[in-house]
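Researcher: Please predict.
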Amino acid sequence: MPQHADILELMNDYKTRGEPFALATVVRTVSVTAAKAGAKALILADGTITEGWIGGGCARGAVLKAAREALADGQSRLVSIQPGDQLSEHRVKAGETRDGVIYASNHCPSQGTMDVFVEPVLPRPNLLICGASPVAVALADLARRMGFFITVCAPATEHASFGETDRLIDGYAVPIDGSERDYVVIATQGRGDSAALKAAVEAPSKYLAFVGSRKKAAALKADMIESGIPPARLENIRAPAGLDIGAITPDEIAFSIVAEMIELRRRGQRTL
């Protein structure tokens, strides 16, 4: 099987499992280089190359560094690996970034030049919505259009309230198969609040929000503590859910929640 076919198959596997990776592609070579234009490699967050080849040690260090940084901030990078005399001619130093290009030195005897494009491939963020309230329905629709993978946990009799989703679960049994990228919103609004919130605090999440008043959330927390749930598990519940934009309607509340999740997700990624 050709190398590119192997890479495409592995890429699909990583995407299905929600595992982030970077795709490094040699886009240009000048003079003698081990890898030629079109060569590709898959790189994991720990710097492991799991498939493909982009050359030996001359290129590996700079490309792996770029891959780790790309996976950390979600931004693609172009790395130009050149012999020292060419870097001097361009008046750049190894490690310097100019006009979006990261320059690195080629110390190998071949003294060739190789440009490598490094693209991060990040999984869709997972949003678990508990409930089938008007806010839940609006949130599922808007968040899916914003690129979230939508799981709805609600009684099966209420599933028809939703448009297109990625996964439907009967009841409020929040699946314990998430990761630190998960977002959970309790939007039951009076129907199963306690059951949904108790299930949600058992699931690992980066963001856990409750659609309801602070008074209602405080009462639910008190009941949960009385039932034996450690108070520390309840500290990160955001209530009311969403940014404070004066939202009133279900669509507005859903918008404020999506905005808050995006702000959290993109924090530190935006460059001036």
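Model: Residues 20 and 175 are 21 Å apart (CA to CA).
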